[in-house]
């Protein structure tokens, strides 16, 4: 695959890489639900010293029980600048380095970020799938507006959702995981359909948080490890 080291290249080259990968996205399930046993939550936290650094944390949960079975982290310098729409080029080197530490192999990854809900359908969850070779889901806490299209607020009840449609295509969903709490924004990453994505995310939400527990635990872990490393 091109640019596996993710060293800085031009924005034009990044767009070319995304366009090539976009043609390989699979919007259907490539698995049976009964084969999903372990789900990974992935998140990163940043800080700056003399250089910009980040810590990536991956937390593995038992899908049936919600119990944490493994947690790993990896810290490193971030050498790729922030360019809107190209987050994967900053984060994937650290994600993949962290992933190599896992002894439990996840059946599915949930990212704190977007997947198909992206101007070129290549958010971090989708881009990462081509390296992880596993189904992925993107879950964002904030809405990434594309082509000036706003989302429609779901009804105020648990499990309510509205599709995010841009130019006649469904990019993702605004999902209300808890009543009286703002929605989250979900999209497929790769190798999974949107209905299954919605069902899995709903099952991963607990009463004490409207964020699915894989990325919630990963977020907690990144803040903890950042305070240690910085």
From TrEMBL:
Q: Give the cofactors, semicolon-separated.
A: Mg(2+)
* Native species: Clostridium saccharoperbutylacetonicum N1-4(HMT)
**What is the similarity comment for this entry?**
Belongs to the endonuclease V family.
Q: Which Pfam families match?
A: Endonuclease_5
User: Where is this chain's protein located in or outside the cell?
Assistant: Cytoplasm
The protein's name: Endonuclease V
UniProt KW Cell division keyword: no
At the highest ranks, the source species' classification is:
Bacteria, Bacillati, Bacillota, Clostridia, Eubacteriales
Q: Where does Mg(2+) bind?
A: 43, 112
A molecular function annotated in GO for this UniProt entry is: single-stranded RNA binding
- Please give the catalytic activity noted in the UniProt record: Endonucleolytic cleavage at apurinic or apyrimidinic sites to products with a 5'-phosphate
- Leading EC class: hydrolase
Instruction: Fetch the Gene3D superfamilies from UniProt.
Output: archaeoglobus fulgidus dsm 4304 superfamily (3.30.2170.10)
Q: What does this protein do?
A: DNA repair enzyme involved in the repair of deaminated bases. Selectively cleaves double-stranded DNA at the second phosphodiester bond 3' to a deoxyinosine leaving behind the intact lesion on the nicked DNA.
Q: Chief localization class?
A: cytoplasm
Q: What is its EC number?
A: 3.1.21.7
Return one Gene Ontology term, BP aspect: DNA repair
For site (Interaction with target DNA), what residue positions does UniProt give?
Answer: 82
Superkingdom, natural source: Bacteria
User: What does UniProt give as GO cellular component?
Assistant: cytoplasm
């Amino acid at each position: 695959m091109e640019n596996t080291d993710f060293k800085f290249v031009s924005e034009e080259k990044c767009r070319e890489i995304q366009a090539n990968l976009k043609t390989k996205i699979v919007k259907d399930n490539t698995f049976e639900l009964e084969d999903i046993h372990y789900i990974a939550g992935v998140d990163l936290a940043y800080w700056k010293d003399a250089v910009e650094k980040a810590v990536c944390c991956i937390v593995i949960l038992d899908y049936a029980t919600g119990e944490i079975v493994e947690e790993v982290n990896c810290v490193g310098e971030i050498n790729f600048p922030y360019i809107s729409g190209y987050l994967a080029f900053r984060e994937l080197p650290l994600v993949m380095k962290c992933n190599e530490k896992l002894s439990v192999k996840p059946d599915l990854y949930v990212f704190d970020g977007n997947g198909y809900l992206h101007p070129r359908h290549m958010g971090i969850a989708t881009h990462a799938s081509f390296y992880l070779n596993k189904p992925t889901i993107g879950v964002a806490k904030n809405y990434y507006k594309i082509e000036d299209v706003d989302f429609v607020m779901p009804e105020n009840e648990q499990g309510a959702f509205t599709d995010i449609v841009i130019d006649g295509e469904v990019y993702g969903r605004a999902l209300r995981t808890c009543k009286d709490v703002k929605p989250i924004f979900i999209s497929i990453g790769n190798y999974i359909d949107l209905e299954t994505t919605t069902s899995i995310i709903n099952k991963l939400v607990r009463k004490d948080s409207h964020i699915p527990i894989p990325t919630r635990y990963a977020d907690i872990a990144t803040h903890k490890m950042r305070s240690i490393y910085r």
